[in-house]
Prior knowledge:
Layout: H1 16-26, H2 43-54, H3 56-60, E1 65-66, E2 73-83, E3 92-99, E4 117-120, E5 124-131, E6 137-140, E7 156-157, E8 162-168, E9 173-179, H4 185-188, E10 192-198, E11 201-202, E12 217-226, H5 228-231, H6 239-242, E13 252-255, E14 265-267, E15 273-280, E16 286-290, E17 294-300, E18 303-311, E19 313-316, E20 321-327, E21 337-342, E22 359-363
Parallel strand pairs: 2-5, 4-10, 12-15, 14-22
Antiparallel strand pairs: 1-11, 2-3, 5-8, 6-7, 6-9, 9-10, 12-13, 15-20, 16-19, 16-21, 17-18, 17-20, 21-22
Amino acid sequence: MSATTNHSVTRSILPAVVLGVLFSLVLSVATASAMRVYDGATARQAHLRHHAAGKSKHRTHRRVRARAAASPTFNLCAKADSVTPTGAPGAIPIWGFAVRPGGGCAAATAGIPAPTLDVGAGDNVTLSINNGLDQNLHISIPGITINPGATPNTRTIAPGDTGTVSFTATNPGTYLYESDGTAGRQAEVGLAGALIVRPAVLPNGRVYNDASAAYNTEALMVLSEIDPNLNATLPTPGGLANFDMATWKPQYRLINGLGYPSTGTISSAAGSKVLLRYVNAGSEHISMTLLGADTTEIGRDASLLTTPLGVSAETIPAGGTAEEIVTVPAGTASGTKFPIYDRNLNLVNGASAGIGGRLRFIQVP
């Protein structure tokens, strides 16, 4: 994300009662079977899982084969829309990306975060983006080189135009894609999402081609925030560019566009490994922590760490990504929950009562 979006934000420290409520949530035991949540799942991921399952006997003999590179195209719209964050009294304007259906962008619904793009290492990827906004888009994918085109900068798409951005997904890992136009404000109001590049060697189940990166279940954690005052400028032409970011003060802090208790649970068996793919699509530096289980950071900004790090809380800078593997303790009782939460304790949904914000649980079914 553009450095212009890295604003210093005053952190509000909530009273001790917040921690008391949080810890009481940790100790709660579910009385019903937990629903398995697949974050950022796409048809392509389902195909890879099905393909890998069909090759189980080859896995037994530790034989793998490389997948052929593909040339996926993602048809997207950039358009004005609205969302109602958990606990908000009403809808808030956004600018967001949406999958472009056959009927065109008028029929598309944009949301936060942007649609997850899921590809394989070596794929030649094309983004076809229709710009339905009144500002130029400027597409950025930190860590990936966008191919040059016939125009001086193929990353810029003018209002009303449909432009194409292409690149080769050379290295596996978790990436942020965004429009960092209007001095970086476009990403903050919704034009940002996750790009997942999977290893080119099947079967799936590793972030990178390394044994330390193996996991059983994965969960995407796109982190963002909303200041309703910033977003309120969107219906006014030029309003976003004129907003004084010195007055920026988020009221809603989100995981995958949702605040607790709408964030869902991640179902994982005792003794298994859960991959958390963090993407910081906002403008705050965010420290996320997990209670009750060992957490190992294995990758940062789509690069495998030479030495994995055991962490209790790790700060993910604005625009950064990270991969962490949580080991659910063997023998954990059914219904046990492990909280993942914002260490800065901004655990509220605006003025709404109760615990909210960036809080989610891993739960043993």
